[in-house]
Amino acid sequence: MAAAKGVCLHHISRETSDLKRLAKFYKEILGFEELESPKFGDFGVVWLRLPPVFGLHLIERNPETKLPEGPWSSTAAIADPKNLPRGHHICFAVSNYDSFVQTLKEEGIEFFEKTQPDGKTKQVFFFDPDGNGLEVGSWAAPQI
């Protein structure tokens, strides 16, 4: 039995060295809305929402952090979108899958696309500008 009760996903955070660039990507490519964000003093944040409730918090990267900023700064195999189906990623469902993929093409975003054995479910895997893995599928959105 789980210790927590009434659990739901509240938000996912992504650290970035360029808040404006990353926020623009999520707003233009996936339709996030920018919310009023709190002031934390010594670092910037941008809070985004995908209606009705999904939250994405973008947090300014600590310049003293020595970790690479994603697969673009690494020689790891994950840098190729073909490796994302089993790698770390956030997944979204869209009702306009084919036109969404066309937008990725028009924006010059490299992606890997696959169709499930049922022949109906399509998925596309790609990276945001900081190298975070994303998946978008042709599933119906969960009902609230």
From TrEMBL:
Where does the VOC domain lie?
8-139
Q: Fetch the Pfam families from UniProt.
A: Glyoxalase
| Cleaved signal peptide residues | none
Entry-linked CDD domains: VOC_like
Superkingdom, natural source: Eukaryota
For this protein, the record's PANTHER family field holds: GLYOXALASE FAMILY PROTEIN, EXPRESSED
What's the name of the protein?
Answer: VOC domain-containing protein
Question: Which organism's genome codes for this protein?
Answer: Protea cynaroides
Taxon lineage:
Eukaryota, Viridiplantae, Streptophyta, Embryophyta, Tracheophyta
